[in-house]
């Protein structure tokens, strides 16, 4: 296993982690907030 | 800046739709929120800091509303903030009522309602330049006396009146406003209507006493243009002609910079190969990162030009006329008139379009609009259309002078609109059955587009596009490259050199790498592509296109980066460096046939018009409908519809001999 291979593995792992984190964040930010009923999107943190 | 209780000052901008609130908000805060010459651009509140006196105040830009009798979601948001009903947002200390001078009576109705909430009001009179150009006059001091509130004339673009507004707002903080009229016993007895009449009576008197109208005014300029542009026959012909010119211009103007960008990224890939030692890292950089991201970034000129034209059409006021032309058709299929804005917004991106459905009061009408919004061809589809057209239809004309590419592009946008109308018709007669409520559309006046706004919109879109290319597209490109590169397969072949060195003459075998195209075939992506190939073969797609199709469900433009990577990774060593367009034209299937024909390209474009290939859109539908059922339904029906339409296109084309 040479140095190039290790760097590539690190880059690919970082890309996978980034994609998963992005997906999880998106899922969280698009989830309806409890108690806001139909008026979602009105909270200050909701950009 | 704080109140006596050390709470930061909160100031809200309230006013009718298209009164210029967001332009003023941007001017006061230095922010760059989207503005356009049509009502309803702001559908969520926006906040920013306004330097006021020694400190700064929190400035809130509210969605436009005609009255505080809230019926739609955006009106509810504005009303709740004005009345202090949202616990996380302090009740405004001062409300800056943004009033369009050219529509004084209608705009002042909201102001009178705000007076009744007991919050100090400063009236900011906008569009005064347009008003004065029409040779009308307004006595600002008299209006201020009659309203019993400060009135300031504002031109957010030139900065006129900004300091005066700041001074008046500072003076108003902590004061108790005075309602300039009283409801008498008869008004109270007449119920809510009595109060409405009383407000309008006061407004009518105030406007009569403070304004002078030039009867010779040329206000018919907009009306005369509208007679042609909104004509049911000429209007549609002009709309088609404008769109053809836009698409033709996008193709002709963008071809040179796009070519340069493509060649630039190709040279960068070659440089990486020449300067770096051969190996897996070099392969990732050249075939994965540079080819993947470069393949998408090369379409930046088209994106810039598309938004240049969209911004020009929006800011001039023409976009509302285009919506007016389609409104009749939309109402016939049962769509709410207010659906036009979400659908127009969806041409840029379905996400703000879906969020803009909050202006629609009826839940069923709102959901119907949400479900058809992704049919509008968004900017992410543009690279796909352009790649296909540039590869197979470039340089050809219709009737000798209209570019075939522009006609095809117009056809794709039209297919999306027709599909939306057909689906809306079906939805409104089945699962979302409801009578469409009456709707009055406001046509904004024509005006010369503001170049700063146009430039700002273009830059914002370019930044979003590049940001996406540098983050999501980059990450997906790396993952796709890995899926196309691994596992590395070796085959046992007789090694001639080894045979000659063998003492006993025995044949020695050694591991030899496969060619790049064979490696790709045996990669994880190759396995996936071969698995779905039977499903997509009737559409004329081979497994490589299948891999790109699956990847594009993350985001549509990923198709371009995937094809770029797939044709780079699978390119055997003897093949020279070439652009993506050339690679698509030359691509072969496993049995050596041409992978792409003009018919395949057309079929792919039809699939892309209709398919639901955007995770972000599904996520926002989930939020806006508060359910997983609707996004799941949307994904299923749109993908099914796209498959059937693509199948018909390809099989009919084959049948006709293409």
Highlighted features:
heterodimer; A: 47 residues; mainly alpha; 0% strand; rod-shaped; B: 658 residues; alpha/beta; 6-stranded mixed β-sheet
Number of helices of chain A: 1
Return the average pLDDT of chain A rounded to an integer: 69
Q: Which oligomerization state do the chains in this entry correspond to?
A: heterodimer
The overall pLDDT of chain B, averaged over residues, is 84
Strand content of chain A: under 5%
Helix content of chain A: 55-70%
Poorly predicted tracts of residues of chain A: 33-47
Task: Report the span from N to C terminus of chain A.
Answer: 45 Å
Number of helices of chain B: 28
Low-confidence stretches of chain B: 495-503
The end-to-end distance of chain B, rounded to whole angstroms, is 71 Å
Strand content of chain B: 5-15%
The percent range for helix content of chain B is: 55-70%
Shape of chain A: rod-shaped
Largest interface pair: A-B, 26 and 35 residues
**Rg of chain B, Å, rounded:** 30 Å
Main sheet makeup of chain B: 6 strands, mixed
H/E series of chain A, N to C? H
């Amino acid at each position: 296993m040479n140095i190039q291979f290790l760097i590539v593995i690190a880059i690919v792992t970082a890309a996978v982690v980034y994609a998963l984190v992005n997906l999880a964040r998106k899922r969280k930010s698009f989830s309806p907030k409890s108690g806001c009923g139909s008026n979602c999107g009105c909270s200050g943190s909701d950009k | 800046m704080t109140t006596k209780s050390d709470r930061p000052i909160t100031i809200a901008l309230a006013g009718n739709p298209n009164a210029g609130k967001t332009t003023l908000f941007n001017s006061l805060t230095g922010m760059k929120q989207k503005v356009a010459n049509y009502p309803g651009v702001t559908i969520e509140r926006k906040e920013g800091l306004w330097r006021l006196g020694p400190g700064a105040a929190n400035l809130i830009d509210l969605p436009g509303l005609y009255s505080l009798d809230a019926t739609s979601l955006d009106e509810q948001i504005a009303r709740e903030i004005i009345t202090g009903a949202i616990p996380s947002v302090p009740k405004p200390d001062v409300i800056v009522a943004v009033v369009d001078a050219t529509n004084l009576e209608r705009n002042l109705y909201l102001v009178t309602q705000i007076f009744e909430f007991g919050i100090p009001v400063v009236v900011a009179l906008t569009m005064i330049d347009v008003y004065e150009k029409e040779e009308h006059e307004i006595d600002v001091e008299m209006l201020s006396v009659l309203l019993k509130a400060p009135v300031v004339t504002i031109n957010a673009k030139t900065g006129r009146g900004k300091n005066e507004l700041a001074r008046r707002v500072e003076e108003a903080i902590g004061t108790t406003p005075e309602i300039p009229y009283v409801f008498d016993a008869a008004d109270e007895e007449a119920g809510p209507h009595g109060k409405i009449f009383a407000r309008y009576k006061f407004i009518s008197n105030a406007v009569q006493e403070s304004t002078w109208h030039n009867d010779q005014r040329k206000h018919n300029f907009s009306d005369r243009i509208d007679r042609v542009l909104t004509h049911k026959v000429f209007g549609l012909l002009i709309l088609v002609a404008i769109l053809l010119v836009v698409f033709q211009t996008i193709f002709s103007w963008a071809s040179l910079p796009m070519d340069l960008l493509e060649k630039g990224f190709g040279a960068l890939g070659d440089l990486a190969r020449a300067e770096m030692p051969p190996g897996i890292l070099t392969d990732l950089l050249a075939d994965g990162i540079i080819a993947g991201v470069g393949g998408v970034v090369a379409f930046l000129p088209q994106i810039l030009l598309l938004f240049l034209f969209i911004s020009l059409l929006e800011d001039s006021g023409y976009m509302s006329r285009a919506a007016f032309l389609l409104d009749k058709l939309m109402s016939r299929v049962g769509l709410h008139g207010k659906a036009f804005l979400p659908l127009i917004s969806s041409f840029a991106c379905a996400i703000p379009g879906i969020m803009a459905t909050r202006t629609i009061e009826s839940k069923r009408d709102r959901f119907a609009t949400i479900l058809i919004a992704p049919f509008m061809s968004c900017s992410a589809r543009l690279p796909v259309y352009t790649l296909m057209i540039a590869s197979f239809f470039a340089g050809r004309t219709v009737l000798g002078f209209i570019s075939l590419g522009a006609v095809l592009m117009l056809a794709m946008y039209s297919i999306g609109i027709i599909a939306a109308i057909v689906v809306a018709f079906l939805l409104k007669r089945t699962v979302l059955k409801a009578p469409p409520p009456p709707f009055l559309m406001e046509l904004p006046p024509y005006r010369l587009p503001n170049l700063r706004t146009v430039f700002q919109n273009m830059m914002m879109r370019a930044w979003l596009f590049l940001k996406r290319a540098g983050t999501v597209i980059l990450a997906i490109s790396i993952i796709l490259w890995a899926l196309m590169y691994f596992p590395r397969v070796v085959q046992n072949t007789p090694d001639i050199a080894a045979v000659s060195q063998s003492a006993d003459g025995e044949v020695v075998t050694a591991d030899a790498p496969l060619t790049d195209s064979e490696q790709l075939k045996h990669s994880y992506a190759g396995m996936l592509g071969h698995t779905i190939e039977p499903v997509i073969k009737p559409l004329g797609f081979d497994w490589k296109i299948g891999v790109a199709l699956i990847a594009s469900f993350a985001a549509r433009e990923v198709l371009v980066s995937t094809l770029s990577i797939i044709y780079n990774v699978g390119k055997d060593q003897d093949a020279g460096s070439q652009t993506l367009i050339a690679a698509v034209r030359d691509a072969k299937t496993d049995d050596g046939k041409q992978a792409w024909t003009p018919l395949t390209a057309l079929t792919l474009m039809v699939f892309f018009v209709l398919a639901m290939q955007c995770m972000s859109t599904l996520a926002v539908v989930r939020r806006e409908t508060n359910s997983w059922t609707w996004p799941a339904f949307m994904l299923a029906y749109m993908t099914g519809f796209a498959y059937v339409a693509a199948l018909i296109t390809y099989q009919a084309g084959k049948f006709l001999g293409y």
